[in-house]
Amino acid sequence: MNKIEHIGIAVKNLKESNILFEKLFGTPSYKIEEVISEGVNTSFFKVGNNKIELLEATNSNSVIAKFIDKHGEGVHHIAFAVNNIEAEINRLKNEGFTVLSNVPKIGTDNKKVVFLHPKTTNNVLIELCEDIKK
Predict the structure, then answer these.
(1) Which residues are CB-neighbours of 120 under 8 A, at least 6 positions away?
(2) How far is residue 129 from each of residues 53, 83, 114, 120, measured CA to CA in Å?
(3) The pLDDT of residue 115
């Protein structure tokens, strides 16, 4: 793992949350993106060298909707940048972590992504991200 790629925050209303976080960070969101397969709209902020991703559910079956129903709004996951996501999946499985998918999905911000089950990471949802080479 190279660095923290971003921190994901589950929100009920992306438009209202964008206004709040724009005031907090003193900068507007640089990208809004929909991920139909995951049932989310996302908004990204750059804060120094760091990125924050806001996630809003687009339907009641989305993982974010279920998260908010159970936990309320707040930190959803921490994402780490990796050079080779397939190698990291294998390495982490061999170390005893539960990977939620054997094959990475296409995520936001031009990334391949996979998540680790929080039961194997002290109840923290961990996302691995690899830039898709163009």
Answers:
(1) 96, 97, 98
(2) 13, 8, 7, 18
(3) 96
Q: What is the CA radius of gyration of the chain?
A: 15
CB 74 within 8 A of CB 8: no
**Average pLDDT estimate for 25-40:** 94
Beta-bridged to residue 77, according to DSSP, are 8
At residue 134, the pLDDT reads 72
Q: Is 86 helix (H, G, I), strand (E, B) or coil?
A: helix
Q: Average pLDDT for residues 87-105, to the nearest whole number?
A: 95
Long-range contacts of residues 18-21, Cβ cutoff 8 Å, at least 24 apart: 18/43, 18/54, 21/45, 21/52, 21/54
In this structure, the strands spanning 74-81 and 126-131 are: parallel
Cβ–Cβ under 8 Å, residues 112 and 105: yes
Examine the pLDDT at 53 and tell me if it is beyond 90: yes
Tokens of 107: 């995520």
Q: What is the pLDDT of residue 110?
A: 87
